[in-house]
Each structure stands twice: as C-alpha cells, then as structure tokens.
Amino acid sequence: MKEIELFCDGACSGNPGPGGWGTILRWNEHEKELSGGEADTTNNRMELTALIEGLKHLKEPCRVTVYTDSSYVADGINKGWALSWKRRGWIKSDKKPARNPELWEALLTELARHEVQIHWLRGHAGHPENERCDALAVAAARRYKK
C-alpha cells in the first residue's frame, strides 16, 4: 500500500457563510493541492469536505496519515462518535440529531477504503502544511464572497 500524508483545513467567512476547504496530498516527493468551496456553508462542513475530497482523490486503497486542526473531525472519528451516530440513525447520545450526517456518511465510506490514522494539530501554530491548507481554504472561500 502507498503511504500518503494528507493535510486538510476548512474556512468560513461567517458561520454560516461563504466557505472553502484546502487539502494537500503527499506521496514520497509528489505533492498535490486541492481546494474548493461553497457559497453558504459552515466551518465544520468545510473541515469534513476537505478530508473527504482528499480521500476521494486517492485512486487505490492507501495507508493514510491525516493531519487536521479540526477537533470536530478528529474526535468524530478517533473517539468513535460518527460510528455511534450512524448506528443510532444519526442521533447523538443527547438525543439530538447529529449535524452533517451526509458528510459523515461520505467520510465513513472513504475511510473504509483506506487504513487511516487521524492526528489533530493546533491550528494557526506555524505548521507549514496546515498554514498552506488554511490559505487554500481562505482563498476558495473568497471566491464565493458577495
């Protein structure tokens, strides 16, 4: 299996508002940057989308090390929240509906294709790839700002 590093970040101008996402995929000396956005979204939706789009870009099952500054994404997977929400029909333990179920479903589908480890890192702390993903996300969000 190829070993891939995936760095991802989301951004939103207002929450909700115009948003963007940025992803860097790295395999050996090869690197690919991806980005996109939406006119009316939330930061959490963009954080999820950044990871989903990065994983979707991989053409074959890979061993993927993910770096995200989103505790929502990292905890949702690492602490098993998303799987629990899915088992309960996208209802959280407090009996309230889980937000973004279609994105969590898409993420769980992508994660099942790969061997994935998700690492949380502090955002805006000088991590070069995280800063680059943030810049990609912010630039994508600006394209949707009125």
Descriptive report:
By secondary structure, the chain is of the alpha/beta class. The chain has a single domain (2-123, 130-142), classed as Ribonuclease H-like superfamily/Ribonuclease H (Nucleotidyltransferase, domain 5), CATH 3.30.420.10. 39% of the residues lie in helices and 32% in strands. The chain contains five helices and five strands. The protein has helices at 43-56, 71-78, 81-87, 101-113, 128-142; strands at residues 2-12, 17-27, 30-41, 62-68, 115-120. A five-stranded mixed β-sheet has the order 3-2-1-4-5. The protein starts with a strand and ends with a helix.
In terms of topology, how is this protein built?
Blueprint: E1 2-12, E2 17-27, E3 30-41, H1 43-56, E4 62-68, H2 71-78, H3 81-87, H4 101-113, E5 115-120, H5 128-142
Parallel strand pairs: 1-4, 4-5
Antiparallel strand pairs: 1-2, 2-3
**Distance, first to last CA:** 44 Å
CATH homologous superfamily identity: Ribonuclease H-like superfamily/Ribonuclease H
Helix content: 25-40%
Total number of beta strands: 5
Largest sheet composition: 5 strands, mixed
How big a fraction of the residues is strand? 25-35%
**Which class do the helix and strand fractions yield?**
alpha/beta
The whole-number mean of residue pLDDT values reads 97
User: Number of DSSP helices?
Assistant: 5
